[in-house]
Amino acid sequence: MPGELQDQPGKDVELYWNYVAQQVFMRLDDKCYFLTAGVHDTLHGKLVISGFNFRQHDIISVFYDARQERIFAGSWSRGLYVFTRKQFHPLTSTGNISNIFYAQAPYGDNGIVTPQGMVFDEAGQ
């Protein structure tokens, strides 16, 4: 299966079908993948949750909001869990500096510049 699910070993597998939203998920151990139709009658798996025990929390239904990168997981007895992907990611510089910058300013469309004149793009370079 192409995507992030390719060549993933796992022993504990479960499918979740949200027929109202027409979404299918596969839980493989402590990871949950959103399955979509690929080209040439294949399935594509995208990792949407990792490190959450679906079985322990009695999860029975899942919904994925792709625009907000948010997962809603409903439980029989523990309510609704909402997972949102972090929008923030740290940037670090290579070299002999402390990587502590108390001020930054926007630079271009997706970059920042530090008071020391270092410029970072969205990839952290």
Detailed description of the structure:
- It is built from no helices and ten strands.
- It is mainly β and 125 residues long.
- It has two domains: 13-84, no CATH class; 89-125, no CATH class.
- The strands form three sheets. Strands 1-2-3-4 form a four-stranded antiparallel β-sheet, with no helix packed on it. A three-stranded antiparallel β-sheet has the order 5-6-7, with no helix packed on it.
- The chain is elongated.
- The mean pLDDT is 85.
How are the SSEs ordered, and which strands pair?
Blueprint (H helix, E strand, L loop, with lengths): L12 E6 L4 E6 L2 E7 L5 E8 L8 E7 L4 E6 L4 E5 L20 E3 L3 E3 L5 E2 L5
Antiparallel strand pairs: 1-2, 2-3, 3-4, 5-6, 6-7, 8-9, 9-10
Short description:
The chain has 125 residues and is mostly beta strands. It has no helices and 10 strands. The radius of gyration is 19 Å and the shape is elongated.
Q: State the distance separating the first and last CA atoms.
A: 32 Å
Overall pLDDT level = 85
Biggest sheet features: 4 strands, antiparallel
Secondary structure tally, helices:
0
The multimeric state of the shown protein is single chain
β-strand amount: 35-45%
Radius of gyration: 19 Å
Uncertain stretches? none
Number of beta strands: 10
Q: Strand-and-helix sequence, N→C?
A: EEEEEEEEEE
Class derived from helix and strand content:
mainly beta
Total domain count: 2
Helix content: under 10%
Shape: elongated
Biggest sheet: strand arrangement: 1-2-3-4
Key terms for this structure?
125 residues, 2 domains, 3-stranded antiparallel β-sheet, 10 strands, 42% strand, elongated
